[in-house]
Amino acid sequence: MSRDTDSTRPFAAVPGHASPGYATESPAVDTRTPSPPYGYSRECHYSRERQLHIVAEFHAHKIRPSRIAYRVGIDIAFIEALIAGELEAERFPRLVADYRRQRFQQRMRDSVRLNGVSRFEQQQRIERDFQREVDL
Asked: Which tens digits make up the pLDDT trace of 2-44?
């Protein structure tokens, strides 16, 4: 003799679970926000001037355009146009050079915590990377 109780139906208490022969509760209203467009994680609330500086700084730190768009919400077409030199052809490279110089100086300051040969080797690597970036 088999009785059908809640203890014998393990999924009966789970809302929205559809098992044959069991009634399901109505699905809950989804309050989550919709997915942002491909490549964007948020709305961009920065002025065009600030966007220019943000893209220059991220580009100086070798961050991909798609990642910049995802993290900050700046239009990817604008980012790629800046990097390609189609927009702000004179100003953008100067900004990138300034941010690269700042990055170089920060990395050199950070290398001071090392001692001896490891400090020397780290500083050589930093200088080599900077020269390679400047030569681009």
From this structure: 555 555 544 444 455 454 554 555 567 766 655 555 555 667 7
Six token digits for residue 40:
């964007």
Please tell me the distance from the alpha carbon of residue 57 to that of residue 70, in angstroms, as a whole number. 15
- Total Cβ atoms within 10 A of residue 87: 16
| DSSP character at residue 66 | H
Q: Is 38 helix (H, G, I), strand (E, B) or coil?
A: coil
Q: What percent of the chain has pLDDT over 70?
A: 69
Instruction: Name the packing angle between helices 65-72 and 76-84 (round to 10°).
Output: 140
Distance from C-alpha of 85 to C-alpha of 76, rounded to nearest angstrom? 14
What's the CA gap between 129 and 103, in Å, rounded?
Answer: 11
- What is the separation of C-alpha 78 from the centre of its chain, rounded to a whole number of angstroms? 16
CB 71 within 8 A of CB 29: no
- Per-residue HEC secondary structure of 6-55 comes to HHHCCCCCCCCCCCCCCCCCCCCCCCCCCCCCCCCCCCCCCCHHHHHHHH
